[in-house]
Amino acid sequence: MSQKAQIGVTGLAVMGRNLARNFARHGHTVALHNRSYGRTKELVEEFGHEGTFLPAETAEQFVASLERPRRVVIMVKAGPATDAVIDEFAPLLEEGDMLIDAGNAHYADTRRREAALKAKGLHFVGAGVSGGEEGALHGPSIMPGGPKESYEALGPLLEDIAAKVDGEPCCVHVGPDGAGHFVKMVHNGIEYADMQLIAEAYDLLRRVGGHSPAEIAEIFKGWNEGRLGSYLIEITAEVLKQVDAATGKAFVDVVADAAEQKGTGRWTVQAALDLGVPVSGIAESVFARALSGGKDERAAAAEAGLPGPSAGAEHSGDLVADVEQALFASKIVAYAQGFQQIQAASKEYGWDIDPGAMAKIWRAGCIIRAKFLDFIKQAYDKKPDLATLLVDQYFLDAVSGAQDAWRRVVVTAAQQGIPAPGFASALAYYDGLRAERLPAALIQGQRDFFGAHTYQRVDKPGSFHTLWAAEGRPEVDA
Ligand code: NBP
């Protein structure tokens, strides 16, 4: 074969097909492969005119059509399929060649695969790709991990097809081994929190304010022009103004109220638990989806008639303005927690992730793209080791400016019996963070009482244990 491809894509379902087209539209020759040849054939028939594709029926033909170092993008169903593809291709590749897993793999799988392939002299790059099928075609946000040296040969191609902000690509080498997939996972976790907070804002505007979905769509449209400006706010307005053609009702009223999940939110919370990072905003959003899907429990509660508050107090304030403040402040908390998780993992695994660069590559192409990511980037540019985003001046001012309204909204939700776990837990996190003394001191006392777990004192160094059973006996150095 004379002509060689700069990059190849194996796995040509919706995501792989669109990524392949994106590479081709940017002038790269793209080798194509899929387990079943039908998808490969379809792609060439439908979109062959968009660029230069080299379709292959077998893995051997595909590998032979790639220039060296070979760059093989894997875009298959995450899990055993990825391992199957790696097992098929690795023996056909040579030292220095790259396998790039652009699917939604768990970062622990990516770490395992990277270590195994490194031993064979191959580069394995776990790359997070966000933006769904539209993003894959028109410019996703790309979060590649893997060996730094692989980025030299791979980075320019990925940057070519990535979304751009002021000409700057939304793609950067995140860090070694599983760093890219970890960051993509947290991105999805933050997305869960963002969506839950938006849903709570809608619910309060509807149930407390009595606004119709169409009116709330207009409110969100207005918010999208301000500091909340983001893709998720924009599409929320679109969803809320949608009318169901069959019934003439608001679309949101004909959709079953059980939110589904694919698992990346859950992974984020599981990883956060292991790292000991309180991502309460993400956790609440995962649990809220689980509660919404708890058919049996909800039916039992309805049957038992679990009572709400006897009299719902009026909201004291401008509800729309207050909810905007509560939404913005809670969103800041959720992002602060997500970034803290990234920093904790970076430290744990020695990834050396630049958090400001993550904010930068999320500004376009991905689901959580938002105006305020610019401020996150600036915060980390000013102070890369920022302990929490909440102490950066912009965010500190925003949250302190919002807090009275935020508290009013949480009070109203509690008094009227409307669940707002995202708003309430974000506020509790904020109050926990700023507390001079936490009741954790009492917990330490309890732990020492029942398990002799010892405690530290505020007035002198060392570990102490109180002889609880012997009344009046002094504490001892442990
Ligand atoms: P799917 O996740 O639906 O996977 C379908 C592809 O996997 C097909 O090409 C299929 O080949 C291939 N495949 C399977 Br299934 N088992 C295989 C095996 N044992 N060996 C080889 N190939 C196998 O495709 P998708 O929705 O395009 O998503 C691809 C990846 O991108 C996933 O990891 C997904 O999580 C991630 N992702 C998706 C989105 C999105 O919006 N959809 C967004 C971001 C990331 P076949 O044609 O022969 O059956």
Automatic annotation (TrEMBL):
Positions annotated as active site in the UniProt record: 184 (proton acceptor), 191 (proton donor)
Catalytic activity: 6-phospho-D-gluconate + NADP(+) = D-ribulose 5-phosphate + CO2 + NADPH
Binding site for NADP(+): 11-16, 34-36, 76-78, 104
Annotated ranges, domain 6-phosphogluconate dehydrogenase C-terminal: 180-469
InterPro entries for this protein: 6-PGluconate_DH-like_C_sf, 6PGD_dom2, 6PGDH_C, 6PGDH_Gnd/GntZ, 6PGDH_NADP-bd, 6PGdom_BS, NAD(P)-bd_dom_sf, Pgluconate_DH
Gene3D superfamilies associated with the record: 6-Phosphogluconate Dehydrogenase, domain 3, N-(1-d-carboxylethyl)-l-norvaline Dehydrogenase, domain 2, NAD(P)-binding Rossmann-like Domain
Annotated protein name in UniProt: 6-phosphogluconate dehydrogenase, decarboxylating
Annotated source species: Actinoplanes philippinensis
